[in-house]
Amino acid sequence: MKETIQFDQQLDCSGLSCPLPVLKTKKAVDAMNSGQVLKMTCTDSGSVKDMPSWSSRTGHHILHYDEEGDQYTWYIQVK
Question: Which domains does the chain possess?
Fold first, then answer.
């Protein structure tokens, strides 16, 4: 049974291709408070490489990543 992660805001980037999911994620976390969690979903397979790279550059922490079919879900905690 999968653990449920609590999140403060949800962002759907389905149908968008690189670099839009990362750019929209950046804009969303910039408007959030430290410690809050963003749930971002997308269909861009490039996010598998892009999100960890973005996370290491910005310091925002990826709490969990899930891939189901062509849907990628990221839980990002704002630094």
Answer: 9-77 (3.30.110.40)
User: Has 18 been annotated as catalytic?
Assistant: yes
The catalytic position among 7, 9, 16, 18 is 18
- Starting at the edge strand found earlier in the chain, the sheet holding 9-13 runs 9-13, 37-42, 71-77, 61-68
Distance CA 69, CA 44 (A): 11
Question: Residues for the chain: how many in total?
Answer: 79
User: Do residues 15 and 43 touch, judged by C-beta distance below 8 A?
Assistant: yes
- Mind listing the pLDDT tens digit of every residue in the chain (79 residues)? 456 899 999 999 999 999 999 999 999 999 999 999 999 999 999 999 999 999 999 999 999 999 999 999 999 999 9
| Threshold 0.85, pTM exceeds | yes
